[in-house]
Amino acid sequence: MIGGSSSNNYMMYVRGNPEDYNSWADAGFEGWDWDTVLPYFKKSENLQVSDVMQNKTLADYHNTRGPMKVSRPEHERTQETKLEALLQSLSEIGIETIEDYNGPEQLGASKNYFTISNDRVPIRYGTAQAYIVPAKKRKNLVILKNALATKILIDSTKTAIGVEVEVNGKRNRFYASKEVIASAGAVDTPKLLVASGVGAAADLAALGIDVVSDLPVGKDLQDHLFLPVVLSGATDIGTALPVVDLRTIGFPTLNGFFALNGTGRPDLQIIPFYLDMASPFFAFACTNNFNFNNDICSSLINSNKKSELFAILLVLLHPKSRGEIKIRSLNSAPEIYTGYFSNADDFDTVTAGIRRILNLTETDYFKSFDSEVVRVNLPACDELEYMSDEYWECYALQMGRTLYHPAGTCAMGRVVDPELKVLGVDRLRVVDASVFPSMPSGNTNAPVIMVAERAADLIIQQYYGDQNIVTVP
């Protein structure tokens, strides 16, 4: 397998909605319906939330024996009180409190899941810890550091026979006895395929690469973008604690989903951040985590000096807009063209979502502090009527940011088949978010792990038969 991941990040654990996967199956991708993929979500999971596992209805959706630790962080009591107030406020605007968004009902808001351990000192728990560390001493596994896959070796019969890899600056070739699996992600897998002659014929010709398989590699990029709606709160709560404590800083400890028509698959996700008054961490997060400019950050920081803030990140779950990964040169990084809001329907969805969130200022908690929407310094929008639809469209263009969920650039039906095999090339699969035919309703961490678990069984089936598939809980 070739590729990599930033598996040491704090990753939210969100499976999405059953209709996400049923739509894949309805499009002809057999074996990717909800009933089939749910066991693979469970297979990887080691849930460390006792109250969920003690609920028989919820426990049926989870597992405590998988390799991937999933937990919920504890909160300092002041923050816990604020979270409870926010949950109540959300319920007042029709986003009800639910126990488990990974259970039988996704619409609503609940405490967040993360791939972190629930040890005395919580630690990040990513795919490296869950899968690679326990297996690193196996005789049939070799892990190379400082290695970059640059090309898949494909012979004259259009069969993948190995990979070309730079290790510590030296070029090496490794040959496959069965097949090659590309897992470099939705941005770098397209570059790897194009370098190997798999891509759109025009793109390959521009690079002087012979065509092995003419496929729309890198096209139809999808991503979850978010934009923050920031509300003021209490003004008499002191300042944030000077001691660094992850339980007290702005941290997405709640997660919510809502559909604009009130039912079905969610259109939008909300990830609230609570920021204590004069939070010392806000300035860093604003410029470094969210990459906002000084004008934007200054207006938000000045508001935070006067009151606590609730920053509600509004996520567009199913964008109609599409982007592209372009490979201009094999000696440079892929170019990412997000295509955000290239389809105007996405403006309508986010504007409707913003107006739902604005209703929070009329709920009991926020009214008690005369809560207001924090007006961000956006010179590009100054000439527009504040809070008009046109203003919010301008706001979305200025404030929209990636949630780092690129997907779909080597999608099923366009580049790979339902077994994730590259069309027109033998013994080559892709296993990462690039194979998603459409976006799941939530963060992509858990769905990618599910795809990998299912791919493992597809490979076992092909080479060893059904009897060797690991039992899924």
UniProtKB/TrEMBL annotation:
**Location of the Glucose-methanol-choline oxidoreductase N-terminal domain:** 185-199
> Which InterPro entries has this protein been placed in?
FAD/NAD-bd_sf (IPR036188), Glucose_Oxidase_domain_2 (IPR027424), GMC_OxRdtase (IPR012132), GMC_OxRdtase_N (IPR000172), GMC_OxRtase_C (IPR007867)
First and last residue of the signal peptide: none
Name the UniProt key words of this record, in alphabetical order: FAD, Flavoprotein, Oxidoreductase
Flavoprotein among keywords: yes
- Cofactor entry: FAD
Q: Which family does it belong to?
A: Belongs to the GMC oxidoreductase family.
- The protein's name in its UniProt record: Glucose-methanol-choline oxidoreductase N-terminal domain-containing protein
Cite the source lineage. Answer: Eukaryota, Metazoa, Ecdysozoa, Arthropoda, Hexapoda
